[in-house]
Specification:
heterotrimer; A mainly alpha; B mainly alpha; C mainly alpha; A: mainly alpha; 0% strand; C: mainly alpha; two-stranded antiparallel ribbon; 72% helix; 2% strand; globular
Chain lengths: 80, 117, 244
């Protein structure tokens, strides 16, 4: 049963990575990137690496997104 | 007998949660402006995830894990409703006009809120 | 033409990587050459030698101690780079986006954040202190701690943060991770062993066990505090707005 969850998670991971690449609006891209990080945290948990899952959830989804958003709010929002 | 009752409570709560998730997703896709979409998606977290977590806590038969799940349900309830409030407030202060049903004088034009949002 | 060249290069890379993947040994096979020497040693003697029931913590801090020391130095260097480009925040010259924005903070959000911040910090402290028995450790707890400080600053403004965590406290704590590694390393030198070793044959068995735990705890707490404070400092120097 759980390998189906893994496949769904991996597909979602690929979709979010492509979404970050395609999106021109940087704010939307960083929010999609935080979704990528959360999915990655669940994948680490599925690979039985809870230490990495904790780090990924706290750093990737929490701190990095805030730093990106602060940087975007000080510079330009659109990518040309 | 008791087991059957507890299991059916779990199943009913999980079905309620899935129903709210589906309704919230449909609302996110179909509703016209940011405020009503926030209204729909906040239901996803509060009622959907909340009732699924409470159902899982019932499934765990009141041991330590179910206490953890209840704490999680409480945290999700508090934080996601606060997030919805903060987002809606930011959108309102940023000058986003709430969507209104189109005036009878312009029957053919689409709603303005949908275009802006 | 250019697109065709890009496509050709990607196709060549794809074929090379795919052939490498096909040649790789099967995933998770205990008979693999990589799983034959190091992994049994870690699994059989990691708890005894590493000093932590959580083998991951034992490997990270004990067997791969030099590696972790380098990572800690990398985080410290990142902070130094950020501070070299953007100046550190100052009460006199800088203000914050929350203070300059025309919209004040919402009462509901401030109340909920005030309610939740102690629990987040409690979880961070738990993760740091329980790193040797359960998943977690210095980096994880420190990241949660830093995220809690960032959220506090986002809601209550930079000036409150600067008033709560003063510069005289912050600057020594930013180097706490490297300092704790140095202290734990010099304990080994003090007993006539190598730098950053956890084996002291001069002591009795119980004393070694206690000393190993103490060193692990020291390093964990140092990494946790330093990571949290460094995240907070990077955020604060990004968040500040120069007052004109």
């Amino acid at each position: 049963m759980l390998w189906r969850l893994d496949i769904i998670l991996l597909l979602f991971l690929v979709a979010t990575a492509l979404g970050v690449y395609v999106t021109k609006d940087l704010m939307a891209a960083s929010i999609i990137f935080s979704a990528y990080s959360l999915t990655m945290a669940i994948v680490w948990q599925q690979l039985s690496a809870p230490d990495l899952a904790l780090t990924e959830a706290a750093v990737g989804a929490g701190v990095t997104t805030v730093l990106f958003l602060i940087t975007i709010s000080k510079t330009v929002r659109r990518e040309d | 007998m008791f087991e059957i009752v507890l299991n059916s409570i779990t199943i009913i709560l999980c079905c309620i949660g899935i129903f709210f998730f589906v309704v919230g997703t449909v609302g996110l896709l179909r509703l016209p402006d940011a405020f009503s979409r926030l209204h729909a998606t906040t239901k996803c977290d509060t009622l959907g995830a909340g009732s699924i977590l409470v159902g899982l806590a019932v499934y765990e038969r009141g041991n330590f894990d179910s206490a953890k799940l209840l704490i999680l349900a409480f945290l999700v309830l508090v934080t996601s409703s606060t997030t919805g409030h903060a987002l809606a407030r930011a959108a309102f202060k940023a000058g986003l006009k709430p969507w209104r049903k189109e005036q009878p004088s312009f029957p053919e034009e689409g709603s303005e809120g949908a275009v802006e949002a | 033409m250019r697109k065709f060249l890009i496509f050709l290069c990607l196709a060549i890379c794809w074929v090379v990587f795919l052939s490498a993947v096909v040649e790789m040994p099967p995933f998770g096979d205990p008979a693999n050459i990589t799983n034959r020497h190091v992994v049994p040693r870690y699994l059989e003697e990691g708890v005894e030698e590493g000093g932590a029931s959580n083998i991951v913590t034992g490997i990270i801090l004990n067997y791969r101690g030099y590696d972790t020391m380098g990572e800690v130095t990398v985080i410290f260097t990142a902070l130094a780079g950020v501070l070299a480009v953007l100046k550190r925040e100052d009460v006199k010259t800088s203000t914050t986006m929350v203070a300059t924005s025309p919209v004040g903070p919402s009462l509901i959000v401030t109340t909920v954040v005030k309610l939740l911040i102690p629990f987040i910090v409690l979880f961070a402290v738990y993760t740091i202190l329980h790193g040797d028995v359960s998943p977690g450790g210095g980096f994880q707890g420190g990241a949660v701690f830093g995220a809690s400080m960032i959220h506090y600053t986002l809601i209550f403004g930079l000036l409150t943060y600067m008033r709560k965590i003063r510069l005289a406290v912050k600057v020594p704590l930013e180097s706490a991770a490297i300092l704790s590694f140095a202290i734990a390393g010099f304990i080994g030198l003090f007993f006539g062993q190598k730098f950053l070793t956890f084996l002291m044959p001069a002591l009795s068995h119980e004393a070694q066990y206690l000393l190993r735990h103490a060193m692990l705890l020291l390093i964990e707490v140092g990494i946790g505090v330093a990571t949290g404070i460094i995240f907070g400092s990077i955020f604060a120097s990004l968040e500040k707005v120069e007052r004109i």
